[in-house]
Sequence to fold (177 residues):
Amino acid sequence: MGESEGFGRDESESLVLSCEYFLKMKKEEFEKLINLNKYQVFVMNCPAHFPFIFAVHSWFVCNEKGKISRWEVLFEKNQKRSWGYLYLNQDKFFRGVKIFPFLSKIKWPSRLLIKIEGKEAEEMIEIIKKSKQNYPYLKSYSLIESNSNTYAQWVLNYSKNIKKILPWNAFGKNYKE
Fold:
């Protein structure tokens, strides 16, 4: 059985906040968490673009025994692939989104919310990889409806044995048509 740690709410407990995982991450700190012999999923977030900095942007970093990838939904339509607003490896896995959408070099630091390892991570990675066909909101994006948090919560909801909910300021996490 795999492990799951971090920030969230499950059916049997109230809000859990693990300060160890709700910290700003630097590249070196994040790289220490990666185990090249394991399947791992890291649920990351950072403040959203200015002026919406009270909200967060969420994404996944997947480690398939050393093969690292970043999956997220962004507010600009993906021009390289026909996945709507879903992106693979659009940015470095540890880096947050742009603070100002028009300045690409100034980015928020990221925070690690949840770390999942083992069988549960392997299953979640498959859900994430298949999301380019299965995610119901590929073709839509909204600040308060379907967005990066909708995607992250959708993946968490479809992952067996993972009962985590994104933080209160992950607007869009509860969106359903």
